[in-house]
Design goal:
Blueprint lengths: L2 E12 L3 H5 L5 H6 L2 H5 L4 E6 L6 E7 L3 E11 L3 E10 L3 E12 L2 E13 L6 H25 L5 E10 L2 E11 L3 H18 L6 E10 L4 E9 L15 E5 L2 E9 L5 H14 L10 E5 L13 E7 L2
Antiparallel strand pairs: 1-7, 2-3, 3-4, 4-5, 5-6, 6-7, 8-13, 9-11, 9-12, 10-11, 10-14, 13-15, 14-15
Length: 316
């Protein structure tokens, strides 16, 4: 069968020597600690099987919601690299080659994850999206490895609530577009503008929330809305500037997960949410935007361990 090749590479700089980083990645069990997949589904089945007559083991991982794979380490150079074969069995069988490389420079270590794989030719149109999604997953794992190495712990988690009726939201907001790498900076600037307007006009704020009307995984471009939730009666006495508008999000049946800890890890919870929709065979309502509801304010709650965000994915 004809196929199309794809490859990707992502890196993260960790403030530690290579031997320290190596101690957190030199076994299958240690790699699971900083795997975004394990955060998404902590009750995943994992086990090792030793290959007869060799020193190699095969790590099997099976997630109820997001698929299954096994990994075979092919070559290992301590403090330098691990080369593995990655075989996905669910939801679609694929075989890939993957590497983790360490490059130490001046008491810092650049960790790079690479992958080379193939797609059936009739799925060529999925290639950009596949590269984007796997790159995000690898990057999230490297950020977790960085925090585990530098801070000694990880405290992020995803809690499932399944199907709920999301409450009606009303507020004033700013719409913007940015690449996913720039989105945190752009979004925070928009929220700062909204907060300043609220302060100048003595508006009592209830919650913050962000809507995602359109995302392009191929290009990494996101259309998003930064919003301050208020009592609807506020609209009667306040005139908004041109860059803001009033809007309401209706009650809607949704899948919900709760994300705990730093916003840098929130992509793990979004992956878990979409993976759950696929697993439960739920149909996503593309006419209604997915959104995040922030239950804590980083300005007054400085400890990321206390940050709580609810994620909602509207269903048909």
């Amino acid at each position: 069968m004809f196929s199309t090749n794809y490859s990707l590479s992502v890196s993260e700089t960790i403030n530690a020597p290579a031997n320290t980083v190596w101690e957190l990645m030199n076994t299958f069990e240690k790699q699971q600690i900083w795997s975004p997949r394990m955060v998404q589904e902590r009750d995943a089945k994992t086990w090792l099987e030793w290959v007869d007559g060799t020193e190699w083991a095969i790590s099997f991982r099976e997630w109820e919601r997001i698929g299954a794979w096994h990994q075979i380490n092919l070559t290992i150079a301590p403090h330098q690299h691990i080369h593995s074969k990655l075989v996905f069995t669910k939801p679609r069988k694929t075989v890939s080659s993957t590497q983790i490389e360490l490059n130490e420079k001046a008491w810092q270590t650049i960790v790079t994850r690479k992958l080379q794989g193939k797609l059936p030719f009739f799925l060529f149109w999925m290639k950009p999206m596949m590269i984007s999604m796997i790159s995000k997953d690898f990057k999230a794992g490297l950020i977790m490895l960085k925090d585990l190495t530098e801070k000694g712990k990880l405290e992020t988690s995803t809690n499932y609530s399944w199907e709920v009726f999301a409450e009606r939201l009303f507020g004033f907001w700013i719409t913007n577009t940015a690449h996913q790498n720039d989105m945190p900076k752009v979004m925070w600037a928009d929220y700062s503008t909204l907060m300043q307007f609220a302060k100048e006009n003595n508006i009592q704020l209830l919650w913050w929330f962000s809507l995602y009307p359109k995302t392009d995984l191929k290009t990494g471009i996101f259309n998003f809305v930064s919003c301050m939730m208020v009592n609807p009666s506020v609209k009667e006495s306040i005139t908004l500037p041109e860059n803001m508008e009033w809007h309401a999000v209706p009650w809607w049946k949704s899948l919900k997960v709760t994300h705990n800890w730093d916003y840098r890890y929130i992509g793990n919870s979004w992956s878990a949410l979409y993976g759950s929709a696929m697993h439960l065979k739920k149909k996503i309502n593309k006419k209604q935007p997915a959104y995040e509801l922030y239950l804590t304010d980083p300005r007054t709650t400085s400890n990321p361990a206390e940050w709580v965000t609810e994620l909602y994915l509207p269903l048909r």
